[in-house]
Specification:
Layout: E1 3-7, E2 12-18, E3 22-29, E4 41-42, E5 48-52, E6 57-61, H1 71-77, E7 83-85, E8 90-92, E9 106-108, E10 116-121, E11 125-126, E12 133-138, E13 149-153, E14 156-159, E15 161-163, E16 166-169, E17 184-193, E18 198-208, H2 210-213, H3 221-226, E19 232-235, E20 240-243, E21 261-266, E22 269-271, E23 277-283, E24 294-297, E25 302-305, E26 307-308, E27 314-317, E28 328-332, E29 334-337, E30 340-344, E31 347-351, H4 360-364, E32 372-375, E33 383-386, E34 402-407, E35 410-412, E36 418-424, E37 433-438, E38 441-445, E39 455-460, E40 467-469, E41 471-475, E42 478-481, E43 488-491, E44 494-499, E45 502-504, E46 510-516, E47 526-530, E48 533-539, E49 544-547, E50 555-563, E51 566-577, E52 581-586, E53 589-591, E54 597-603, E55 611-618, E56 628-632, E57 635-637, E58 642-646, E59 658-665, E60 668-671, E61 680-682, E62 686-687, E63 694-696, E64 702-707, E65 719-722, E66 725-726, E67 728-732, E68 736-740, E69 762-767, E70 770-778, H5 788-851, H6 867-876, H7 886-889, H8 896-913, H9 916-927, H10 934-947, ...
Parallel strand pairs: 11-18, 21-30, 22-31, 35-43, 45-51, 53-61, 63-70, 73-79, 78-80
Antiparallel strand pairs: 1-2, 2-3, 4-5, 5-6, 7-8, 7-9, 10-12, 12-16, 13-14, 13-17, 15-16, 17-18, 19-20, 21-23, 23-27, 24-25, 24-29, 26-27, 28-31, 29-30, 32-33, 34-36, 36-39, 37-38, 37-41, 38-39, 40-43, 41-42, 44-46, 46-49, 47-48, 47-50, 48-49, 50-51, 52-54, 54-58, 55-56, 55-59, 57-58, 59-60, ...
Helix pairs in contact: 5-19, 8-27, 8-30, 9-28, 10-12, 10-27, 11-12, 13-19, 13-23, 21-22, 22-23, 23-25, 28-30
């Protein structure tokens, strides 16, 4: 395969396919204004090409097949590396297509072929008799039965049959309705491979509708039916159009001439305002013998009986039609008998003689068939009417012509210009114009410009001397003269000078010619030439202004003017000089916000009248098609060689565009560049706002931090202000700006006073046109402005007194201080020793935990919930009823006698919800109700999701419509960033549910495993150390508020557990001797039943744990009579309390009567709750400080406690140890949901593209806003919810202590998704400090994820609908749809009147009778008798 890779000096490279003719199939711009070196090198794999510019090396792939999203684009690319892999539905290299060796499975791009359905058999069919369709496909890939070809016909998807080179598809279950004014509906048909839904061919198949075919031609039902291209016939007896059959007494297809019909109206034209008898004929009317006919027209509400003559002809009398909008009007007449229409070809033309005929000549010029006359009746104004409407003898001759106006009013002595004469009665036809004179000089009539009665155009003749005179016309012997104020003047123009006298060769100079009588003739009559080049006249008057054209050489040329045929030379020459040049420009770049002064030095600037700077921006892939222009008109001309421009503001992301900056000099464009570089734009810098919005103690220097600060700015250009006063900039680097503020704190700007705290001035940085307000500044006001002569006595006198007193006190206190010092030193040494011991112990714990990391995960399978349970928990667990919600239980309280009626009514209600007009009105009405709370909106949206689950495509369309409305509200309110922040509207909750539905399979197949591993790792890590059952705090956690702050002594035990009726083998279980009995039970159940879902495990309260230390047996429980007591406090029993040792034998059995303990040994297990209620003072590992104990403590013991009390912060090292142990699991989860290189759910791509599209539509260019939308719609709306609630997707129990750690990871995930930079300090929350190092990586991961999705191949509406339809098909049957409909109806019932009113006010709803349908449903559901 011969290929050539070519590079040009001007930064482009080309790929050329060398076949019989060399064809360029791809090109790429490498780097603007950087030439490419000639050495192009392929790597060893021949997959990449190395290209070098002046300062960079680029590695470019020789093919990019994957970017072509469909076969057509792949074929159009003509890339010889690529081809369409039919079985995989993607553009690939041949080696990457798994079935490329099979015939027609890989279609080479240069061949330009795609799999296409070339024919269907039958070609069409009636919508009332659908049948199988045989499709011929070319080129047909070799297919076998195992390929499972699937046919999606309309909304129906079924397996296709393969038979002898054709594919057979079943007809759709539901054929869409036939569109209005059409006789068929085209239904889309798609062929896919069933297992992976890979599309490979499509077609549109017509289903015709004979009933609609009869309505195509107005008033001609039979003709419409019989002349139709479909197989229809007209049954004239029943007056219907139906599918062809063997019946003979009908009018078959193509027999339209045999239709009963009326035709040939006479007369075909009818006057307005006059009753006329119209005669017409009839054909093939045998069946209608003796019938009475009625003629009519709906536009004029006209009906009249039809009279039939003896010879078989027909007639009717018109009414006096009135219509003044046009001269004529086509009138279609229908014929009816017995309320059915007979074909009528009766079309007559109504005409109005008065329309547009205001004078006699115009009237008599009307077509003779109209029979218009100029009627002059006494006492009435003369007008043009139909002859029979005039009651006086009509006139045949018109009054003399009248001249009212002429253009132009002047002309040159040479004549030759055209004069337009306007007036009335200027003749009926051109031949009526006999002669024209202007100032007694003949004027040559120009027949081609003549307009009946109103306009005559003639060419004026020459005149020897200046003269003024009237115009006279002869119309068929009748003379008409212009009035004395309408005169034509012959005059001679005299140009005297021009300005300027020189201009550039490129032209574009605005040349002004002054003189006498230059406004002779009109603008079109004067031509100006500068040398041989025309000068385009732009202004005509006392001075003539024109724009010079280009000239090919430097020279001095004459300026000539031409009036008509007379040439006049201007007595002054014009000089074409050399074009201006640019020799230097500084600075060489600007920020995209503009406003930087660019000093341009060059030559010949004095020739230029107007300067401006123009910036062209075009995307490399779009070229000049979508080129954008930005104009900078702020220009200062310093001298003949120097001009200063202010750079105009352009796009925010100039790095994504090819930018060209030109100077527009008059009409001459000159690119701002020199031999080494062009003028460039760079993205604006970024500044960091002051911490807490205030910069304190700024008496010396203020420091502002940011990035790219000096990329297109110097210290001399930059400006900074404190309030109204300047801040003198001392240093400007890439990341820092330092400026010296005014000595005294300035007042804030007046415009800021209202927003200012404590009257502090704001600190403002201004680069060019853009300003940044970084916060407010607060001066150090501790030093006052008191005069020195007051300061000295006020300070020195007290100071001397203090020194004297200090000397006296010092001797007394020194000995006491030494004693205190020794005491404090001893205490500090003790405290230091305590801290050292604790740190050493924590470090040892950390090392042990890191070694145990490999034992974290139980290798049992992942217990993913089924779809219904998953949606129940996501949609309805947050509801107030929880697991008892009727949507989860699925139980409807309906009497059995009414169940069938109610169910039928609910199905009708479902149909009503499928009306977009109803549903949108329904939602809007509810949201307008004040008592419709946020909780109700969430619940309503979830019910709606279940109710419409069977039609997720429709649900998505509704959601999209509501979203567009919501977005419009936020954009109009100018706060788009707030959109999607919460779920305050129905549509926002609909989006949450939509994401949950669309991502279920993705959770199950991809993200579920890393999430489950993370959950199990946290659970294992937490349970490895003590957990306080009362305080819900743990030794090992990520949450500082859930950290067990005391040093609890504990030992790990391995107990051997026998399960009653569970066999003879014991199960080893790891527990802690400080575990409560309930905690031990939970760990045993977790281990024993680990291969079963959590929902099938027994509860800890329902089992009994028995310890057999030998031949005896003892039942263990949390609280019993042996529990340790201390006043009002009672401690929960642990294994240590019972002295259970390592290797002990325990028996787990279900609770029975015989196993209830004796009264003298311990409390029954259920008694624990009673004890808790009575005492309300139980503790497990750490006993809370009791208020009574506090009062008893002595002062000395308090000091001792303070000295020996553990410093809680020491234990924060445990957070780090747990974090380090879990880090890999956290990373794995983040990678699974934030990696666009892996599988990305189509819903995510589809919705993100929708947000990008809407941002572009609303001209939202702020990337932060789009980032916030995407973050609020997916990570924060879905992933954080799943991360904090693993039981929504897995069959697991989430303990509160595990939940606390999950919340920290969820918060980290949320922080990663925001672009806001969080400044960390010693006071920052521990969880933010914990992941401070990783958060920047996570943020980049989110940015890359969004960017990667944006670059992916778009998901079409069709593909998305197919995906949604598959979800509907797979899961709808398992959901409580009927219950959801019943619950939804409760809202209808609650706001019934408001909904009915909204439907009755909506025209679309009125047309579909939606209010009536709702009333019927309400009557059925509420068992009411209705009069509807």
């Amino acid at each position: 395969m011969p290929l050539a890779f070519l590079a040009t000096w001007a930064h482009c490279w080309f790929m050329v396919f060398l076949s019989s003719t060399a064809t360029e199939y791809s090109s790429l711009t490498i780097e603007l204004n950087k030439p490419i070196k000639k050495d192009l090198v392929l790597d060893q794999t021949q997959e990449n090409l190395y290209v070098m510019t002046t300062d960079k090396v680029y590695r470019l792939p020789v093919q990019d097949c994957h970017k072509y999203s469909d076969c057509e684009k792949c074929a159009q690319a003509r890339d010889p590396y690529c081809g369409w892999c039919v079985r995989e539905g993607r553009c690939t290299k041949k080696a990457d297509c798994g079935t490329a060796d099979k015939e027609n499975h890989w279609l080479w791009s240069p061949s330009g072929t795609c799999v296409t359905i070339i024919s269907a058999d039958p070609l069409n069919m009636s919508r009332r008799a659908p049948a199988k369709v045989e499709l011929t496909v070319s080129p047909l890939p070799i297919l076998t039965a195992s390929d499972n070809v699937c046919c999606t016909f309309g909304g129906t998807t079924r397996s296709a049959q393969l038979k002898e080179g054709v594919i057979i598809c079943d007809p759709p279950d539901i054929i869409p309705p036939t569109p209005k004014h059409q006789d068929h509906v085209s239904v889309p048909l798609q062929l896919t491979f069933e297992e992976n839904k890979i599309f490979f061919a499509s077609h549109t198949y017509p289903f015709y509708d004979c009933e609609e075919a009869m309505n195509l031609f107005e008033n001609q039902p039979c003709y419409s039916c019989a002349s139709n291209r479909w197989n229809c016939q007209w049954d004239w007896k029943r007056h219907i159009c139906e599918e062809s059959s063997s019946i003979q007494d009908v009018i078959k297809q193509n027999m339209e001439e045999e239709c009963p019909q009326f035709l040939n109206p006479d007369p075909p034209i009818i006057p307005m305002e006059y009753q006329t008898t119209v005669y017409f004929e009839g054909k093939h009317l045998d069946y209608y013998q003796g019938k009475k006919f009625v003629v009519g027209n709906s536009q004029f509400e006209f009906e009249a009986p039809v009279d039939e003559s003896d010879n078989g002809n027909f007639s009717f009398m018109t009414k006096e039609f009135s219509y003044s909008a046009n001269e004529t009007l086509q009138l279609n007449l229908s014929i009816r008998t017995d309320k059915v229409k007979i074909d009528s070809k009766l079309m007559v033309t109504l005409y109005n003689c008065s329309y547009g005929r205001s004078d006699c000549s115009l009237c008599l010029a009307a077509h003779h068939d109209y029979k218009c006359v100029w009627c002059e009746e006494e006492g009435k104004p003369s007008k043009c009417v139909y002859e029979k409407l005039c009651h006086a003898p009509p006139t045949n001759t018109c009054p003399p012509p009248e001249i009212t106006r002429i253009e132009p009013k002047t002309g040159p002595l040479s004549g030759g210009i055209l004069l337009t004469i306007m007036g009335s009665n200027l003749g009926i036809k051109a031949e009526d114009v006999k002669s024209i004179t202007v100032a007694n000089k003949e004027c040559l009539f120009k027949e081609e410009f003549y307009s009946v009665s109103t306009r005559i155009v003639c060419q004026v003749g020459p005149m020897n001397e200046p003269q003024q005179g009237q115009i006279e016309v002869n119309i068929s012997g009748k003379l008409g003269k212009s009035p004395s104020e309408v005169l034509f003047t012959y005059q001679e123009p005299h140009p005297s000078q021009i300005r300027p006298e020189s201009g550039p060769q490129a032209g574009g100079t605005t040349l002004t010619i002054s003189g006498i009588n230059l406004a002779t003739g009109s603008k079109k009559d004067v031509q100006v030439s500068v040398g041989s080049q025309p000068c385009n006249v732009t202004k005509f008057g006392d001075e003539i202004v024109c724009i010079t054209g280009p000239n090919n050489k430097v020279e001095t040329v004459p300026v000539t003017m031409n009036y008509g045929g007379m040439t006049i030379i201007v007595p002054q020459l014009f000089t074409y000089s050399g074009n201006p040049t640019v020799t230097k420009f500084l600075p060489v770049n600007s920020f995209s916000s503009g406003g930087r002064n660019i000093t341009v030095t060059g030559t010949s600037f004095e020739l230029i009248q107007s300067f401006s700077l123009v910036v062209y921006a075009e995307r490399p892939e779009a070229g000049k098609i979508n080129q954008k222009k930005f104009y900078g008109n702020l220009v200062t001309r310093l001298n003949e060689t120097t001009v200063v421009f202010s750079s105009p503001p352009i796009l925010e992301d100039p790095e994504n565009y090819n930018i060209t900056t030109v100077i527009l000099m008059d009409r001459y464009e000159l690119v701002v560049k020199n031999e080494s570089h062009s003028f460039a734009y760079v993205a604006d810098p970024t500044f960091e706002n002051f911490t807490d919005g205030i910069k304190k103690q700024v008496n010396k220097l203020i420091n502002a931090k940011g990035s790219n600060l000096n990329k297109a700015m110097t210290i001399d250009e930059a400006q900074a202000f404190v309030g109204d006063e300047p801040c003198n900039i001392k240093t400007l680097t890439e990341t820092d700006l330092y400026c010296e503020p005014p000595e005294v704190q300035p007042q804030p700007k007046k415009r800021q006073k209202r927003d200012t705290i404590n009257n502090l001035p704001e600190f403002i940085v201004k680069f060019g046109l853009r300003e940044w307000i970084l916060g407010r500044v607060e001066y150090d006001t501790r030093v006052t402005d008191i005069p020195l002569n007051l300061i000295l006595p006020l300070v020195l006198i007290p100071m001397i007194a203090i020194i004297g007193i200090s000397i006296i006190c010092y001797r007394r206190k020194s000995q006491q201080a030494e004693r205190e010092y020794e005491k404090i030193k001893s205490q500090l040494e003790g405290l230091e020793e305590s801290v050292r011991d604790r740190c050493k112990k924590e470090f040892t714990d950390l090392m042990i935990e890191m070694e145990d990391q490999t034992n974290d995960i139980n290798e049992a399978g992942i217990p993913v919930l089924d779809y219904k349970t998953y949606t129940d928990r996501v949609f309805f667990l947050p509801s107030k009823d929880g697991e008892k919600d009727v949507m989860i239980t699925g139980k409807l309280d309906i009497p059995e006698a009414r169940r069938q009626t109610v169910e039928q009514a609910l199905y009708q209600f479902s149909n009503l919800l499928n009306s977009k007009s109803f549903l949108i009105n329904f939602i809007h009405t509810l949201e307008n109700q004040r008592e419709f709370s946020a909780r109700a909106k969430v619940y309503f949206a979830s019910l709606l999701t279940v109710a419409l689950h069977g039609k997720l495509e429709y649900y998505t369309d509704i959601m999209r419509t509501l979203f567009l409305e919501l977005m419009e509200q936020y954009v109009v309110a100018k706060n788009p960033k707030l959109m999607l922040r919460r779920s305050e509207t129905v549509v926002e909750r609909m989006l949450s549910n939509w994401m949950s539905i669309c991502l279920y399979q993705y959770l199950k197949d991809n993200a579920g495993e890393p999430l489950y591993r993370l959950f199990k790792a946290i659970k294992h890590q937490v349970e490895k150390g003590p957990v306080d059952a009362v305080l819900k705090k743990a030794k090992y956690t990520l949450n500082d508020t859930g950290l067990l702050g005391d040093d609890v002594e504990y030992t790990q035990l391995t107990v051997n557990v026998y399960v009653q009726d569970g066999g003879n083998e014991s199960i080893p279980v790891k527990v802690l001797n400080c575990d409560t009995i309930s905690q031990v039970k939970e760990k045993i159940i977790d281990q024993v039943y680990r291969n079963l879902p959590c929902s099938q495990w027994p509860k800890a309260e329902s089992v009994v744990l028995e310890w057999r230390p030998g031949s005896t047996a003892q039942i263990l429980s949390d609280l019993d009579l042996t529990s340790q007591r201390d006043g009002r406090w009672k401690r929960i029993n642990t294994l240590m309390h019972y002295n259970v040792r390592d290797g002990a034998t325990l028996i787990l059995s279900k609770m029975g009567i015989s196993q209830q303990p004796e009264d003298n040994q311990q409390d029954v297990p259920g008694e624990r709750h009673a004890l808790l209620e009575d005492e309300n003072k139980v503790w497990h590992l750490v006993r809370p400080v009791d208020e009574m104990d506090e009062g008893k403590s002595k002062r000395g013991s308090v000091k001792e406690k303070e000295r020996t009390k553990a410093i809680t912060e020491i234990y924060l090292t445990r957070l780090l140890s747990v974090k380090g142990t879990l880090q890999q699991f956290v990373d794995d989860f983040f990678h699974s949901v934030l990696n666009s290189n892996h599988v990305v759910p189509p819903a995510v791509k589809y919705f993100f593209d929708f947000l990008d599209e809407q941002a572009e539509k609303h001209d939202i260019k702020d990337e932060d806003t789009i980032h916030i939308w995407k973050t609020n719609s997916l990570p924060l709306r879905f992933w954080v919810n799943i991360l904090k609630n693993p039981h929504f997707i897995f069959d697991v129990h989430v303990h509160e202590v595990v939940d606390a750690s999950l919340s920290v990871i969820a918060q980290t995930f949320m922080d990663a998704c925001t672009r806001t930079e969080h400044k960390l300090s010693r006071d920052s929350p521990s969880n933010k400090l914990l992941y401070a190092k990783e958060i920047s990586n996570y943020k980049k991961m989110v940015e890359d994820y969004y960017k990667g999705i944006r670059q992916m191949v778009p998901v079409s509406d069709q593909d998305m609908n197919t995906h949604l339809a598959e979800i509907s098909r797979a899961h709808t049957d398992s959901l409580n749809t009927l219950v959801a409909l019943h619950q939804l109806y409760q809202y209808t019932n609650k706001y019934y009147d408001e909904i009915i009113n909204a439907l009755e006010e909506d025209p679309a709803a009125q047309k579909m009778q939606l209010a009536f349908r709702l009333q019927q449903i309400a009557a059925a559901l509420e068992n009411k008798v209705t009069d509807l």
